[in-house]
Structure formats: structure tokens, C-alpha cells
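Hi F.,

I've been meaning to write this up properly since the lab meeting, where we talked about keeping a consistent format for the predictions we share between groups. The idea is simple: the sequence comes first, exactly as it goes in, then the C-alpha cells exactly as they come out, then a line or two of notes. No screenshots and no reformatting. I'm using this chain as the first example so we have something concrete to point to.
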Amino acid sequence: MVDPSPEGGIAHYTYNLANAISKYEEITLCGPSKYELSDFPRDFELKGVFGSSLPLHMVGNIRSFLDTSTKRPDILHVQWLPYPHIDSTAMFMMKRFSRMPLCYTAHNILPHEPKKRDMHLYGRIYRESDCIIVHSSKDTGSLERMFGVDRERIRHIPHGNYIFLSEYFRPLDMAEARKELGIGEDTFVMLFFGLIRDYKGLDILLRSMAKALKERSEDILLIIAGKAPAGFSKYDALIKDFGIERNVMRHIRYIGLEELPKFFSPSDVVVLPYRKIYQSGVVQLSYAYRKPVIASASGGITEVVKDGRTGLIVKAGDEMSLKNAILTAYDSREKLKRMGENGWNMARTEYSWDRIARRTLDAYRDLV
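Output, unedited:
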């Protein structure tokens, strides 16, 4: 398995999958030299070959190629291509020289902010892959429609849960967590968590929240916790223009794993106002901390978020739809707690890693 991700959602996905597969088969992960999960227990072999800079990343591709060419494993499974134009070439070479089947997980069918050349590049990646794993039935349809991929080469295997994080970094008592952040006990708290990019729709959430505040008292708080690679100034400007500075708590940086309880525990609901998404690990992270979600009906989200049972579904990009969902959640806090429990129960059963590992192994065996 190849995944250069040093941290974040894809790294967490690969760690869990490799650990679960290792109960049945021997597996080696060619991964990063600096690994966020290095102290977590694992039953798979980790080879830290990928460095953080582009030259060291290319060295990792060479080392992965040499390792697979020498050992000739049964399957090559690629999880992520940080530099797709470079990494895809290395992937094709590993497949051809090692003469083994290639399995590729399409966490995103195309990059979130695609360029024209990406259609050609990813079209080739999908043509070269003997098996393509996707996380939703909608992604299956997209591969068929956009790239002409035969259905028999596509495997729909859902995204697994992130309960391992809530077990390692246990939830805090809500009242204590709120006291630590200086939040009132009766405040309605929403959380926007993760990398902040345009397609995530934070501006839509801010506009919807400003509208909601006009219809309810001001005891609504939005916690924004995540890194903003392109800067946060435009969101700061919106917060100021709407006059909601006192209703927004900002932690604009990468949030380390040990801080997860600090932000999830005091929250009533997690909001995912995405304009467009294929699937989101934040949903599973929310379920792991027993939190319901308000999420846009985009991509495979509606297959994971059960409207009225584990969260609320809103129309993607629609400020009024999101505003109404915020007000519904505001008036239904006891129901939100039940939704959070439902999400946790669904995560540990339907999205268990053992179940996902066995389905992945079935895909492997069909190739060999």
C-alpha cells in the first residue's frame, strides 16, 4: 500500500485500513518519514520513505518502486497522489515492472479545484487501474459517466469510522469543555472543523448564521477550527461586516489530534456546508465523538448522513436551507443528542474497519 500522507484524513483512513487488513494478510505501507500516527499501535509494516519536500517525495517514489520491484507483492494499492503528474508515473512504473494488479482508491474522483488537464490525467489513472475503490454509489456513477470506466472494475466500499481517535483522545464532559473555552452552558454551539478552502462553504455558513441570529437570541456560537492555506482574511471581513464577531470563535491553524476533544466535546452540532464534496472524513470524526451533523446534499454525503436520524441535510449552496436547519437544530437540542448516539452506533457497525477490510480483501482476491 502506498500513501505519502503525513497527517490528516487520508493518513487516518490508510492507517485504519492497513491495520484491519493485517489481521488477515501481511501488508506493508510505503508511507511518510514523519507520521502523525507514529505512536499509535499498528500491526502492519511501515516504511517511511516519503519526505516532506518535493525532492524527498520523489526519492520516496524511487524507494517504493525498488521495494515493490524486488519483493513482487500480490497487490499494489495506492491511496493518495499528492503530486499526481509525478506520482502517477511512478505508480504506472511500479505496476508494469512488478507485474502486479493495481488497486487505486479514488477518495475524490477529481481534485476539489480541478484544472482542464486533470480530466486527461485522471482518465489515464483510471484506465491503468485494475480496481478502483470509491466511497459512494454516486462516485460509481461519476466514474462510468465521466471516464467510461467499466462497472466491474469499480468497488463501492464506504469510508470507515474514526472511533480510534475518540478512544485514544477521549471526549470531555460538555460542561467542562465549555468552561475551558469560556462558553456559556446554555449557548448553542456549532463547529466548523478541518481544512478551510473555498469549496467547503464557510462563507455560506457565516451568511446563514447571520440570518439565523436575526430570528433567535444571540446565544449561538460558531467555533471555526482548522488551517486556512489561502488565508482567512475574507472570512474575517464577512464576520465583521455581519457584526457577528462575538458569535464566532476562531482557531485558524492545524488542529492536532490531542485537541480533538477540546473542539468536539463542547459542540451541539458539526456543520459541513460544502458546495461540492465526494465524501467527508469529518462526518465520521463527528460520529466518533457522538455529534450529529448538518451537511450539504452533495456527493455521497446523503448516503452517510441520515436526515433526521444522524443529522440534517440541506441543499448545497443554499443559505436559506442552511439557516432553517440551524434554527431547527437550535430548537431541538435533546433530539441532537439522540442523533449523535445514532451516528456513533452506525459508525461502529456499518462503518467498522473489519467489515471494510474484508470487502477490500474480496476486491484484492478478484484481481489475483
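Notes:
The chain has two domains: 9-160+352-367, 163-349.
The chain is about 45% helix and 15% strand.

If this format works for you, I'll send the rest the same way.

G.
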